[in-house]
Design brief:
Order of helices and strands: EEEEEEEEEEE
Number of helices: 0
Largest sheet: 7 strands, mixed
Distance between the termini: 40 Å
Length: 119
């Protein structure tokens, strides 16, 4: 089992920045990919970014490329999502998730943290 706890959400004005954190505990290892997803009001959940624990390769949704950066601290077992140049359409509940590299779906999810961007 892997437990994930997000933090760092809040209210920010358009153009501002926030950094989300996801603390992982339990049976974590280098065989995991950590992802960030979000679900805006009235929208379905969508992929934002992911990173491999081992090697640190990353992927981003087109909507956040150049504005968001995903990173990890292997010592602290924490994944971060640095969000810059925030837009009102970034308003959503942001979820951290984990999956094994050889599995297509995410098995573990955090409780989510609210990000609200005002215009």
């Amino acid at each position: 089992q892997v437990q994930l706890v997000e933090s760092g959400g809040g209210l920010v004005q358009a153009g501002g920045s926030l950094r989300l954190s996801c603390a992982a505990s339990g049976r974590t290892s280098n065989n995991y990919i950590m992802g960030w997803f979000r679900q805006g009001p009235g929208k379905s959940r969508e992929f934002v970014a992911d990173i491999r624990w081992s090697g640190g390769s990353t992927r981003y949704a087109d909507s956040v490329k150049g504005r968001f950066t995903i990173s990890r601290d292997n010592v602290k077992n924490t994944v971060y999502l640095q969000m810059n140049s925030l837009k009102p359409e970034d308003t959503a509940v942001y979820y951290c998730a984990a999956r094994l590299i050889y599995k297509p779906g995410y098995d573990y999810w955090g409780q989510g943290t609210q990000v609200t961007v005002s215009s």
